[in-house]
Design a protein that fits this description.
single chain, Glutaconate Coenzyme A-transferase, 2 domains, 10-stranded mixed β-sheet, 20% helix, 3-oxoacid CoA-transferase, B subunit, 3-oxoacid_CoA-transf_A
């Protein structure tokens, strides 16, 4: 059995050279090799191409490299959570490329498997697909995505043995597993290094043949940033809760459901064991339970896609982000409930970008919009200026075309029977006259 060298942080960071492409595991600060990133920040290596879901948080993880001016280009899924990344991209200080979260994960998996690229329906017809090759496969437009590889991968695991076999903890798997396969040099930051044999073969998530070096470094609360603890209880107005209740009424026992951020997260607060609904989160968990009540945070619990600590229900499972999005694209998610910025008469959705606004990330929205068997959009009926969000044609950048099954606002519920936008229900305290006045789209009447 081979022995993988165990080295210190500075020695590991020094293996990254100016101009390298660096893969960094993690989802937010969960499963993030933060100590390796900070050691690289101290060395000052420059002109790096950074590939990761996001650039950490301001001054944390990749965010420290960004603040130091060490990044030449960022390739990732969701940079909005780091204001420094948004500013750097919009000012032109750092080049950037946005990929849907599932596309990013699959591109890394392809890179690690020696596959040159793949076609995916995700992002077809959107700004993300501009300039890319497309092809009609089985009647559906699909976008070609080139595989991704790096010179060096910094990843995080919970345990490793001296042969380099890795074990991930809860939702710390995320992008780490794919990245462990997709770089010329793989350096793993781990909480604990144990003798060979201490990790049972069936508990090895990444075999040691992928690993070149190990570094032992303990995670602290400070390393976890905003995921460190559960936020205080939130106040929710009645109209938003009514939307969540109406969305819940669409779910059936046994449904596998993905909830987006914003109003959809309120649905989770309403689900009881009696509903028999299985919640999925795209960062690698099936069977998501409520937020912990004991004050524990990401040191003790998994996190959901909103980077909020959650509990695991009996029968839950963990997996990596590539497998999570395979579930989505493979039509194994029954319902996705997402927020929206615009929905139009042709069931098109825009919910990821507003020109000129500091939004720099698509996350998993495009994958979910295309992949879920049923898509429910919960959103306020109008913008702050009173303009309608239910429009004849979307003018904001599209998330996906012809995908919306139902729209729930504080005023009304719309569906698309026979492909036509149809008002099927009024929400509490709403009138038909108000709905007509505040809806710019043409719609048919489905209520008596």
């Amino acid at each position: 059995m081979k022995q993988v060298p165990i080295i210190d942080l500075h020695t590991a960071a020094a293996m990254v050279k100016d101009g390298d492409t660096l893969l960094q595991g993690g989802f937010g600060m969960t499963g993030n090799p933060v100590h390796l990133m900070h050691a690289l920040a101290e060395i000052g290596t420059k002109n790096l191409t950074f590939i990761g879901n996001n650039t950490g948080e301001p001054g944390l993880g990749g965010g420290r490299l960004l603040r130091n001016g060490q990044l030449k280009k960022m390739i990732g899924s969701f940079f909005t959570s780091n204001p420094d990344a948004v500013k750097a991209a919009q000012s032109g200080a750092v080049e950037y490329e946005l990929l849907p979260q599932g596309t990013l994960a699959e591109a890394l998996r392809a890179g690690g498997a020696g596959i040159g690229g793949f076609y995916t329906p995700t992002s077809a017809g959107t700004l993300i697909a501009q300039g890319r090759e497309t092809k009609i496969i089985d009647g559906e437009e699909q976008v070609f995505i080139k595989a991704l590889r790096g010179n060096v991968a910094f990843i995080r695991a919970w345990r490793a043995d001296t042969a380099g076999n890795l074990q991930y903890r809860m939702t710390e798997n995320n992008f780490n597993k794919a990245m462990a396969t997709a770089a010329d040099l793989v350096i793993v930051e781990v909480e604990e290094i144990v003798p060979v044999g201490e990790i049972a073969p069936e508990h090895v998530h990444t075999p040691g043949c992928f690993v070149d070096y190990l570094v032992e470094a303990k995670i602290t609360l400070e390393d976890l940033g905003s995921s460190a603890s559960v936020s205080s209880s939130k106040k929710v107005d009645e109209s938003r809760m009514n939307m969540a209740k109406r969305a819940l009424a669409e779910l059936k026992k046994g449904d596998v459901v993905n909830l987006g951020i914003g109003i959809p997260t309120l649905v989770a607060d309403l689900i009881t064991p009696q509903h028999g609904i299985i919640l999925h989160t795209e960062n690698g968990m099936l069977g998501v339970g409520p937020v912990p009540t004991d004050g524990g945070g990401a040191m003790d619990y998994p996190v959901n896609a909103g980077k909020i600590p959650v509990t695991a229900l009996p029968g839950s499972s963990y997996f990596d982000s590539a497998d999570s999005f395979a579930m989505i694209r493979g039509k194994h998610i029954d319902v996705a409930i997402m927020g929206g910025l615009e929905v139009d008469e042709a069931a098109n959705l825009a919910n990821w970008a507003v020109p000129g606004k500091p939004l720099l990330g698509v996350g998993g929205a495009m994958d979910l919009a295309k992949g879920a068997k049923k898509l429910i959009i919960t959103m306020t009926h109008t913008n702050p200026d009173g303009s309608s969000k239910i429009v004849p044609d979307c003018v904001l950048p599209l998330t996906a075309s012809n995908v919306v099954d139902m729209v729930i606002t504080e005023l009304a519920v719309f569906a698309y029977p026979n492909g036509k936008l149809t008002l099927i229900e009024l929400m509490p305290n709403a009138t038909l006259e108000e709905v007509k006045a505040k809806t710019s789209a043409a719609f048919e009447m489905g209520i008596k």
